[in-house]
Amino acid sequence: MSVIPRGEPAGLDDTDDPRRWWALVIIALAQLMVVLDATIVNIAMPSTQRALGISDGNRQWMITAYTVAFGGLLLLGGRIADLAGRRRTFVAGLAGFAAASALGGAATTSGMLFGARALQGAFAAVLAPSALSLLTTTFTRPGERGRAFGIYGALAGSGSAIGLLAGGLLTEYLNWRWCLYVNVPIAVCAVVGGLVLLPAGPRHPGARLDVPGALLGCGGLVALVYGFSEAEPRGWTDPLVLALFAVGAALLVAFVWWQARAPQPLLPLHIVRDRDRAGCFATMTLAVIGMFGLFLFLTYYLQVVLGYSPLRTGLGYLPLTATIVVCSTQISARLLPRVAPRLLIAPGLLLAAGGMVILTRITVDSDYTTAILPGLVLLGLGMGLTFMPVFATATADVAPRDSGVTSATVNTSQQVGGSIGTALLNTIATSSATAYLAAHLPDPARRALVVREGVVHGYTVAIWWAAGVMLLAGLVAWVTVRAAAPAHGTRGTPLPRDARRP
């Protein structure tokens, strides 16, 4: 007979809280805000750069300041949610995120903007794991859990594309500042809804934060994410980049060593030793490497090569967004209670890789309907099949006391994957374009056309690599994720397996 430790509820019984679906709306709203903020400023970057006089060398900090703080502090934010209570950290994260967004929107100097973006990332690191752990502990029955995670996975998979669309609309019809101000009313609504609808959750007054673990783990992640972000402009062999990688690796090795000995570890190692969960973390990292790189190239391709406006570029992503949402909520959510997760994840990644292969056919004058749209639809189907079961499987069967840090680990996989994908695939694209130009530029009469062809060639080579990474993610998922269907196995049942630990 399984025993649940005192003070650790097995999870809410869905029949006890009729407001749980309204709570899901609040959780989903907060998650969407966090995810889209990683890309919403992308389309506004040229306008922001001109308005604040930001140099070309520093403009990347509009993105990097957010991603470094977010990715580096997630483990700490997740553990704080476990100790202080998920609703408290959720509301605090929302309030802080809104304040940081208002500060960024009112920025008058580049330093003020970069600082606000870093604050956004720090509060997002508290907010994101709180949101996912609230979802995990609120929906425990396989059927309803599938629908809830279908909505969450749809937002996680399409949030970046929604951010590009929102950035185009706000930049074209208002100005770049509204790409930050828009978070304030959303956060205010979510705070009010969170206070009214979300359960307070247990606190653990006797527990202590693992300070050495926080310093080692967060320091290692910050160094790693910062290293990948600097690898793009500086190059992989730059001394600073190599030093950041070395420091990050050393700190993370020390972190693992300490977690095995700490009395109250920041990241209990039994969470990552679980084969299914570790497979989901690896799958998420690899999938996001390919997806984030594609967003970068496709955005520049549509605006720079095809001459689309920011708004038209954002609208170009609508089919991808719609397909992810429909597939996550209407296909994955219905199938996950009945089939093993890997039977959704692996085929989904195969479809996503197929969509990317279609996108390798783009040229300097491709037609959107025939050359781009089919690839985006196929990619959306694949991501819709992938993200929802990855989130659901990675967070299933976790004791409530560890749900925050487990959720943070899933989000960390996303952030690290995004940083690697942006840096690695951009390097591949740049080097491929340079090689193409060196081979084709001797003819000066075709210089302008060859330059455009070289840029597109670099994009297509990088997209081929992204497709390969997607296939590798599918293989990893197929080999490592062995969980049974939630309705017939232990995953997704109300009793967390980790709760059996004394």
Q: Count of helical segments? A: 18
Any idea what the radius of gyration is? 22 Å
Q: Give the CA-based shape.
A: globular
What percent of the residues sit in helical stretches (DSSP H or I)? over 70%
Q: How far apart are the termini?
A: 13 Å
CATH second-level architecture of the largest domain: Up-down Bundle
CATH superfamily of the largest domain: MFS general substrate transporter like domains
The major pleated sheet works out as: none
Tally the beta strands: 0
User: Which structural class matches the secondary elements?
Assistant: mainly alpha
Query: Would you state the CATH class of the largest domain?
Result: Mainly Alpha
Organism: Streptomyces gibsoniae
Protein name: MFS transporter
Main location: membrane
Pfam families: MFS_1 (PF07690)
Describe this structure in words.
The protein is mainly α and 502 residues long. It has two domains: 17-200 and 266-494, MFS general substrate transporter like domains (Growth Hormone, Chain: A), CATH 1.20.1250.20; 210-265. The protein has 18 helices and no strands. The chain has helices spanning 20-36, 45-52, 61-84, 86-105, 110-138, 142-173, 178-181, 183-197, 211-234, 239-259, 269-273, 275-305, 310-316, 318-335, 342-359, 368-394, 403-440, 447-480. The model is unreliable at 1-15 and 488-502 (pLDDT under 50). The chain crosses the membrane at residues 21-41, 61-78, 90-112, 118-137, 149-169, 175-197, 209-228, 240-258, 279-302, 314-336, 343-364, 376-399, 420-439, 459-481. This is MFS transporter.
